[in-house]
Amino acid sequence: MNFSQQLRAAIHANPEKPAMDFKGRVFTGGEIAGLADRTLALLDAAGIEQRASIGVVVRNKPLHAGAMLGLLTGDRWLTTVYAMQAPGSIAQELRDSRFAAVIADRIDWTPEVVAAARECGTFGLVLDLEAAEPISVHPELTQPGAGPFRTMDGEPGLEILSSGTTGKPKRIVFPTRILVRMIDSVKVANMGKAPPSILSWPYSGIGGMCDLVASPMLGRHVSLLERFNVDDWVEAVERLKPETVVGVPTIARMVLDAKVPRERLAGVKYFVGGSAPMPPELQDEFEETYGIKVIWAYGATEFCGTIISWTPDLHEQFRKTKAGAMGKALPGIDLRVIDVETGEILPPGRQGYLEALVPQVRDEWISTTDLVEIDEDGFVFHRGRGDGAIVRGGHKVIPEKVGDCLRDHPAVLDAAVVGLPDRRLGAVPVAVVELKADVAAVDEAALKEHVRAALTTPQVPVAIRIVDRIPRTTSLKADLGAVRKMFEDQLAG
């Protein structure tokens, strides 16, 4: 059997066994498989071409999990679309992508999105957990139009927007057969076991997609969180009693800040995570408070999962001497560091861009803009990002993209965006804006709303200062150090 067939067999293997819980409701394996089958049946009935790119506006909900599993088991092309953006941005993505079919939650079928789908001739499926029929045809989008529609060549699979770990976010294509790497990543995170999963990763990212594919293949239960909050997460930990929990540094920070009693996390041995570097001082505080070992890892969408990780054995031997490292390369993965300017391969102990050879994904080196150092023992230390990306609670924010968005406002002459440290989220974007002369007054709230309408929520600056002149260097570029100091001085005051 190929991977799609194996995955299909897995989701149908235990129809009576609880497979997922969501907001107090339990879904059996049979219910999830039924959602997958219905999705395929509706697409087939509408005559959607097998090679067509099908967009899914992704949310962490059981119906979305079932629909996406249907596409992956039916040799359909799945393209993820972020729900965490303004309706106008989703509508524009539909116009740009020209999907033959779109699957979205009832709340995401806004007038703007419906209009864009109708304009493209897109067939629509509505996901509504409260409806008599949870997956149904949108009443205004009952048949595909004339197109043209976007089609994909080659082996079917998954197309997912990268988070920007290795550079500017872009859609990455993975044939279905490569998704076995996702299962390997989850096995690494769970030390080879298959405990219950308390899913706080978004399905729209590589971490959530790994869990979506791996959970039925490993036969494990998933407690699905639509969004992370401490109370729901702790309730799931107490109910399921997993040995391993998975998340980002922000989760550790929020649990500590909420002063969750140690006994409520009893039984948890490991907190495994990635998506952003784990500050050594946060790791120390979490481990000392809860007696839970922090096992960190590094991966990216381009790698189809994790490529660098700690293990319990490495933690036991090197926790103190290698504090701050991301871990070591996983078996079968080769790493190297190249000079930022020349591309020359550097020896251990030198800082440069990370490159990785992941044979299951590609038979050539994959470049990143992560600045790292690999020591003589093979431990990898993250030293920053060459593209200046701001990692906000695991989400990568590209300052240039936010700045371009601000400059698109009719009142804005120029803008500069930088990151500031944040105790809970790791870092947050802030901006200064210089306005054009003789324009109508605009305030911070209006500028934030302008960004919110065009970009995803994590990209909205937490503060925007309107200044007479943006500080500049001798070459007239924005002086980002001076911009950052403006906000640091404000915080200090």
Please provide a written account of the structure.
The structure is a single chain. By secondary structure, this protein is α/β, with parallel strands linked by helices. It folds into three domains: 3-173, Rossmann fold (3-Layer(aba) Sandwich), CATH 3.40.50; 228-385, Rossmann fold (3-Layer(aba) Sandwich), CATH 3.40.50; 390-492, ANL, C-terminal domain (GMP Synthetase, Chain A, domain 3). Helix content is 31%, strand content 27%. β1 (18-22) and β2 (25-28) form a beta hairpin. The longest helix is centred in the N-terminal third of the chain and has 17 residues, at 29-45. It is globular. The termini are far apart.
Number of DSSP-assigned strands: 25
Give a quick account of the main beta sheet: strands, pairing sense, barrel closure: 9 strands, mixed
CATH topology of the largest domain: Rossmann fold
Which regions are unreliable across 5 or more consecutive residues at pLDDT < 50?
none
What is the typical, i.e. mean, pLDDT? 89
The CATH class label of the largest domain is: Alpha Beta
- The span between the termini is 65 Å
CATH superfamily of the largest domain: ANL, N-terminal domain
Strand-residue proportion: 25-35%
